[in-house]
Design a protein that fits this description.
CATH architecture: Up-down Bundle
Oligomer: single chain
Radius of gyration: 20 Å
CATH topology: Growth Hormone, Chain: A
Number of strands: 0
Distance between the termini: 38 Å
């Protein structure tokens, strides 16, 4: 149930849409990919360090401190000339974020790619432990070691490798590389029932983790470029919401697929879905393409 309520919370974008929108407002386009990667890397580190520090900070209201920091210290990201001149109660409707992400053609294409990538990711999250136990006979301690390695790899990929890749390949090239690595990782997992080697699982999982990390940051950057300057928060919030919806549908469909057809068919299907992303445009010329809603 916690996962369900977490996804409902995600439907309304939580704080990440506002965070990415704020960063897009104050960061030059050529620097956004690096900054988005650092944000994701910091989030990954927080998931590792959070449980260890939670007990020490349990007496503090960190949410209240965040609110006070944002209210009194964090400056407004938009100059007065670019702020909305009109506000009414309809702006408080969280579902408006969804329509905001689809109002611009270039953004719409990019959000479609994100949803198609997050579906395999969410399937992996709920079926990987089953794959490890049923095919390799792993116990929980062995499975947890793999996830720790994946978390550390994700931090390194987003925090240190991504900025160098962006300089060489640009955001669109990095997104395509991330899709390729993710699909290769899923294909390797699909082959695990035929080649039951732990090394194959490690390599496949790490490939997917690196691919997911660099893809997510570069795709968020492409969305920020495609969105108008005054709509960064709404567009980023809507994109985050659609991503959360994909992570609701993925486990539901993936669990059914795994229980009926087994791990090979499950991971083979999601690998094929990843390969389909090659057919989707990544809006190489996204800049300025979304200046007006469709």
């Amino acid at each position: 149930m916690g996962a369900v309520f977490g996804r409902i919370d995600g439907l309304f974008a939580r704080g990440f849409g506002a965070l990415f929108g704020y960063v897009a407002d104050i960061t030059p386009q050529e620097e956004r990919g690096k900054i988005f990667g650092q944000i994701d890397a910091t989030t990954g580190a927080a998931f590792i360090l959070g449980p260890a520090l939670g007990g020490l900070a349990s007496h503090l209201s960190l949410s209240a401190l965040n609110a006070l920091w944002g209210l009194f210290v964090l400056p407004e990201s938009l100059p007065v000339s670019r702020r909305s001149k009109h506000f009414d109660p309809s702006h408080l409707n969280p579902l408006r974020q969804l329509s905001g992400a689809l109002a611009y053609p270039a953004v719409r294409r990019l959000v479609t790619v994100i949803v198609m990538f997050l579906l395999p990711l969410s399937v992996m999250q709920v079926t990987l432990a089953l794959l490890e136990h049923e095919v390799l006979g792993w116990e929980p301690s062995q499975a947890s070691t793999l996830f720790i390695i994946v978390g550390a790899t994700d931090i390194v990929a987003q925090g240190f490798v991504l900025p160098r890749l962006i300089k060489t390949l640009k955001e669109r090239g990095v997104a395509i590389l991330g899709i390729s690595l993710g699909a290769a990782g899923m294909l390797g997992m699909a082959l695990l029932p035929l080649f039951t080697y732990p090394a194959l699982l490690y390599v496949s999982t790490l490939l997917f983790a690196v691919g997911e990390g660099i893809f997510t940051a570069s795709q968020n950057t492409l969305i920020s470029i495609a969105a108008p300057a005054g709509a960064q928060g709404q567009v980023q919030g809507g994109a985050q919401s659609f991503g959360s919806l994909a992570q609701v549908a993925g486990p539901l469909g993936g669990g059914q697929l795994y229980s009926r057809f087994g791990p090979g068919a499950t991971f083979g299907t999601v690998a094929a879905l990843g390969l389909l992303l090659w057919q989707k445009p990544l809006a190489a010329d996204a800049q300025g393409a979304a200046s007006e809603p469709a």
